[in-house]
Write a structure and sequence with these properties.
heterodimer, A: 328 residues, alpha/beta, Rossmann fold, seven-stranded mixed sheet, five-stranded mixed sheet, 36% helix, B: 435 residues, alpha+beta, OB fold (Dihydrolipoamide Acetyltransferase, E2P), Dihydrolipoamide Transferase, Chloramphenicol Acetyltransferase, 3 domains, six-stranded mixed sheet, 8 helices, 25% strand
């Protein structure tokens, strides 16, 4: 199986889907001539031409609206936002048009569009460019929210997202584009709404997604050295959420930590905790703990930024706490 | 500092109690465990016991007064101590938790909080080699609530372990799963003390534990939901049959002719047959528990007894392993004490199936109301000679009609009918009971 970067796995998914279906097209800032701010669209303009790889002006609300309209008349647009921080300008199109069109037209008009781009914080990009918005979009009925953590999932989930008949918010990890991993060739499709057990333990469940998957795996590795085996459950799709996988793991381990890159208040983890307490109350041997970013705008200062982010040490501390175990 | 004596919840449903009679007068010395007063609850007359020693300083309420649970009734302290508000703050005497309707009655009641309030000590699991590992009891909050994780509670309930007897190793003494698992395997040191009024003979246990909890299947959930919508909240249906009592009559006459032991009543025979038939049809020996069904491995038959103010259902524990003679003696004793309102809560709770008999009042047949969470009750009519077809001829035979009320969420028509068929076969040929 070939080893690809996360960015090339996304590129492969786009290329294969554009070859497979001529209704699929890509648009966004710098996706054509510049081949993408993060080079996800490398070689696509050359292969598919300017009708299907469209450079847009710096007008997020405008081109998101064009994407919604194109989807309404039967095309399958993939709209790239340079980052999800910039997509704040387009949120009216996503929330009020894309998410509601099928409902408000009585099922007559769907919006089979994918809105994609990097989310979360990178390194020292400051408060306005270091934000995780998945809980915002997951809050909206009518939107699916997908967040791959590995190159193979990036390819398989993007293919599913493009084929889905509903609007999909596809949030990539800015720090994940260079991550390498084995990616199956050709028809590799990962269904939406299915979580993935990235590591199987049995003492505790660590629920995570996107960048926190790597953090959780690192924490699990260190915990294993201390004799604690963790289930690391990658949600992959935030909405629809794989309730079954969450409950199956927690029912096995009876203890749970939920990690996410976003802020604590009303975050994705809050929803996960709600499901567990409701559906698996009698399985719990300890309160569920969440590990999130600090509840502040992301500091620019390097040390403060590090302190504000989720890291393996914080996950380990939470695991120790739910295991009623003093830290090593 | 004086100790406040409050009205205790002496029965599971008690909200207030009538102080029938003071057993200690003001100024009299009181030791821990002394009976201070007799209190009439909603079900019985019970004793209010001193949980602190000293002198009974003041009877705050007069005999005959009705007092809500946890209201002040008396003060205990040193002679001469002030008893008005100007004095030192009185300390509330710890109350014993009310018996739990859902706790299997073969277990002892939870220890009083006095014991539970002892420091839980350092966090440690009782190791296998520790002889004196009488575990520090779980920490209980002032309300008597034991801190335990949901999983620990579930495991404790499944294994019949008393949470109050377990030392919690979690934060603030929270009992967690490993503590319950440790307690369940710790052996005699952690085992609860023997139950008061234990049956004379160890009950034959044919399955692990006193009961088996079975989660509801989808079809069971649907049946429960639909039928409750129709007839609620207990969707009851009725099965009626008529039983030929000639042989049971002869058997009773023969026992009477022996002239020894208690006088066996037909009700005793019916109780015995119900227990024997339940042993063959465990599906009818069950409790509806909202999200699951508790199939009891033990058989405790409740019998409805009419008393002056209404009725009460004393329970004959382990009915199936008792002889007819034992059942007869016990039912007479329970019925007599029920009429005097001298039953303890554990003597009228925890039944798994009920029998109500109005035969002695000349009722032909009737329907009885289910006693939840039990799922079935038999309503027994009188034995009367009726002309019936018998061996090709019309003959006068002693016949008895009875009707079983079934909670359809637990018992289906065919299930109840199979039970009744066995029961009928036993009464029509009493030897089948010991088959």
């Amino acid at each position: 199986m070939p080893t690809l970067t996360y960015r090339d796995a996304l590129n492969q998914a786009l290329r294969e889907e554009m070859q497979r279906d001529t209704n699929v097209f890509l648009m966004g800032e710098e996706v054509g001539v510049y081949q993408g701010a993060y080079k996800v669209s490398r070689g696509l303009l050359e292969e598919f031409g300017p009708m299907r790889v469209v450079d847009t002006p710096i007008t997020e609300l405008g081109f998101a609206g064009v994407g919604v309209g194109a989807a309404m008349v039967g095309l399958r647009p993939v709209v790239e936002f340079m980052t999800w921080n910039f997509a704040l300008l387009a949120i009216d199109q996503l929330v009020n048009s894309a998410a509601k069109m099928r409902y408000m037209s009585g099922g007559q008009v769907g919006v089979p569009a994918v809105f994609r781009g990097p989310g979360g914080s990178a390194l020292q990009l400051g408060a306005q460019h270091s934000q995780a918005f998945e809980s915002w979009y997951a809050h909206i009925p009518g939107l699916k929210v997908v967040m791959p953590a590995t190159p193979a999932d990036a390819k398989g989930l993007l293919k599913s997202a493009i084929r889905d008949d509903n609007p999909v918010i596809f949030i990539e990890g800015e720090m994940l584009y260079n991550v390498k991993g084995e990616v199956p060739e050709g028809e590799h499709v990962v269904p939406l709404g299915r979580a993935d057990l990235k590591r199987s333990g049995g003492d505790v469940t660590i629920i995570c997604h996107s960048k926190t998957v790597a953090v959780a795996l690192k924490a699990a590795e260190q915990l294993a050295a201390e004799g604690v085996e963790a289930d690391v459950l990658d949600l992959r799709t935030i909405r629809p959420l794989d309730t079954e996988a969450v409950l199956a793991s927690v029912s096995r381990t009876h203890r749970c930590v939920v990690a996410e890159e976003g802020w604590p208040f009303a975050g994705v983890g809050a929803q996960v905790v709600d499901i567990i307490q409701r559906e698996a109350f009698d399985e719990l041997d300890a309160p569920i703990l969440r590990v999130t970013a600090a509840d502040v705008p992301m500091p620019y200062n390097k040390q403060l930024e590090r302190a504000a982010k989720v890291d393996p040490a914080k996950v380990i501390a939470a695991v120790n706490s739910v295991l009623y175990r003093s830290g090593q | 500092m004086s100790t406040k004596v409050v009205m205790e919840a002496l029965s599971p449903t008690m909200e207030e109690g009538r102080l029938v009679e003071w057993k200690k007068s003001e100024g009299e010395a009181v030791a821990v465990g002394d009976v201070l007063a007799e209190v009439e609850t909603d079900k019985a007359v019970m004793e209010l016991v001193a949980r602190a020693g000293g002198t009974l300083l003041k009877q705050v309420v007069p005999a005959g007064a009705t007092v809500p649970v946890s209201e002040l009734v008396a003060l205990i302290g040193e002679p001469g101590e002030p008893t008005e508000n100007g004095g030192a703050p009185a300390q509330e005497q710890a109350t014993q938790p009310a018996p739990d309707r859902n706790r299997p009655v073969s277990m002892p009641p939870a220890p009083p909080e006095d014991a539970a309030n002892e420091a839980p000590g350092p966090v440690q699991m009782p190791g296998p080699g520790v002889e004196s590992a009488a575990p520090a009891p779980a920490s209980a909050s002032p309300g008597g609530r034991i801190k335990a994780s949901p999983l620990a509670r579930r495991i404790a309930a499944e294994r019949g372990v008393e949470l109050a007897s377990i030392s919690g190793s979690g934060p603030e003494g929270r009992v967690v799963a490993r503590d319950v698992e440790g307690a369940a395997t710790a052996g005699p040191a952690a085992a609860p003390p023997p139950a008061p009024r234990a049956p004379a003979r160890a009950p034959i246990s044919r399955a692990e534990g006193p009961f088996t909890d079975v989660p509801l299947s989808q079809i069971r959930k649907t049946i429960a939901k639909r039928l409750t919508q129709s007839i609620g909240p207990i969707p009851t249906f009725y099965l009626t049959t008529e039983i030929d009592m000639e042989r049971a009559w002869d058997a009773r006459e023969a026992l009477k002719a022996l002239g020894e032991g208690p006088k066996i009543s037909f009700n005793d025979i019916i109780l015995k047959a119900v227990a024997a038939a339940l042993r063959q049809h465990p599906a009818c020996n069950a409790w509806w528990q909202d999200d699951h069904i508790r199939y009891w491995n033990e058989i405790h038959v409740s019998m409805a007894v009419a008393i002056e103010e209404g009725l009460i259902t004393p329970v004959i524990r382990h009915t199936d392993v008792k002889t007819l003679r034992e059942i007869s003696t016990e039912s007479k004793d329970l019925a007599a004490r029920a009429r005097d309102r001298r039953l303890k809560p554990e003597e009228y709770t925890g039944g798994t199936f009920s029998v109500s008999n109005l035969g002695m009042l000349d009722i032909d047949e009737f329907t009885a109301v289910i006693n939840p969470p039990e799922a079935g009750i038999l309503a027994v009519g009188r034995i009367v000679e009726r002309p019936v077809a018998h061996e090709g001829q019309i003959a006068l035979r002693r016949r008895m009609r009875l009707t079983m009320s079934c909670d359809h969420r637990v018992i289906d028509g065919a299930t109840g009918a199979e039970f009744l068929k066995t029961f009928k076969a036993m009464l029509e040929n009493p030897l089948v009971m010991v088959w």
